[in-house]
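#structure-requests
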Amino acid sequence: MKNCKRSLVLLCIALVIVLVGSIVACAINGSNGVKVSRINFDTANGNLSGLLYMPKDASESNPKPTVIVTHGYLNSAEMQDANAIELSRRGYVVLALDQYDHGHSDINDEVYSDASFFGVWLPFWYNSMYDAVAYMYEQPYVLKDEAGNGIIGVTGHSMGGFGSTTAIARDELDAAATGIRKIYCSLTEGSDFMYTAFVGFDAATAESLSGGRVLGKVAAQYDEFFFNDPAEQGGTVRHKDYVSTPDGMTFLQQTEPAQANTWYETSDGGKRIIYQPAETHPWNHFSTTTTGYAIEFYTEAFKDYQAGITAIPADQQVWLWKEIAECVALVGFVMLIIAVASIVLELPFFNKAKTGTLTPAAGAKGKAKIITIVVLTIAVLLPAIFFTPLMDEGAGTTTVNILFYAGIAAAAVGVAAIIAFLVKKCCKKSLVGGIVTVVTGAALALVAKTPMYQDNAVWTAIGINSIVYWTLACALISATIMGLMFLILKAKEGATFSSYGLVFKPVAIVASLLAALVSVVIAYAVLWLMDALFVADFRIWTFAFKTFDANILPAVLRYLPTFLLYYIVSSAAITINTNTDKQTGIKGYLLAMVLNAGGPLLWLICQYGTLFATGVAANPGSALSGIMMVAMVPTLSIAAIISRNLYKKTGNIWTPAFLNAVLMTVMTIANTMVAFK
């Protein structure tokens, strides 16, 4: 009863934090009387969704200059919060768009069968922005000039930028037949002409189809993907100077290296500018500098349409307070999950998930302590060491083959332990440890040699398939290390399955699964309520818990087993290593977080520390994978906190393993591209 009261108090505190954070986020989102609503509309290619920011004085009788902003690959509309908030509070109508198959938008599957598109990544960005322009152009609150041309700006980040570039070119081609230009200007962020060239719009062609518009680019100096000097070889994660490259000069219509942050007149009567902040690719949409550039750009681009636009200086920005408020709500959300799970575990039947109290083991001493520290250090480092080979190179490559041989060697040790048991009739723990090590070692060897998650028709959250492969390998690396440690050390210390939180009672496992599912459903119900009331979710930068549509659930179920294996193994590792008399209180939580997220954090420090210090990253070929690693740190840290908290309450790992697997799988799939829904 005492524990239940504590959980109820924690629940109340968590709800207050979530509510306050969401209310503040809503207030900032709707600064200066802006009304924010989630909309969706049908198109020829599917259904698009987005957040519509309507200034209080925008109407059919008072139409406004309009900006459509959109995200890049694997993100959603909320990633453009900074631009949407700052432009709308100054008086522009803004649509923050979910591109097709991202967020709440869906593309018709037959679009993928068009032979002119290769791969599943091209149709979403090629069509999303132009279809959104067509919709917004027809809205009565969107300003047109006397000739019927749209006073619409398009801004996209990364692949959203490609969509903006192609939308300009397509609009110009259509204008040749209709006499109407729907798009007035464009500012792209984190995108060049690398991919637009695949559909016929390289730098020169796009420039020739600009139609005298006002155009700009944000070309970050440390962008992981784009703005490369063609003379530079050996990976793209390096320092850039786009205004000095051939494409940069073509864009600005210059024959010599140009100046960044400088306006240039063009021969067709337009204007161009390239901004070069000292940022990385994802930093663009979490930057007061880049947001300031967007404000300055549209002030200049729409200078003839400033009636009713509030002249707020570009450096006076409030969007960051919304991010802070939603981060506070994120903290409350994690507290809420733990509180809800703790309360559910006290209810009839669900309380069968509790199998007793795990007695803290004595901390290792002497030689055993040294061995433990060394092994834990290796266990933390290995996910970082093999991150690039697993993510970017794949199964069967030279470095990944090291895991193949390591798995074979571990399996051989397990076989030796089994033989020793059979010959010497020694402790049964040698037999158990041997079997575990054979299974995990053989599985690791198999995974290291076998290409996996490559059928896009099955593994439809295509952008995360490489990280799922890394996750599976990490689970097997950790399980193999635990098997070897059990044979070498833990069995002698008296460890059993229960020391790892592995209690094989069917009713406890079933009750744990149901408790986890109920807890996640309740937590997400709160999230949905905050979205409905305040258009708020729980996030910090690229990491977010957000609402989703039911059509992603089949993908969730397909990926769930892989993540479940990982969280079973990680929960067991946390349990055996933090349930000691030396790891009490906050020390145990910190160690749990290091065990889960220490490797990814070290990889990021090495990768970006080297990039900023030398101009070339430690792994210059790890562009998308490095960006995805950023969100892994909070993901695995939160999972570690949940694991440690709930294994101590249940006496086993099943509830935290199930809860983390379901929670993080849903969160991951909701924040990425899902095709063929």
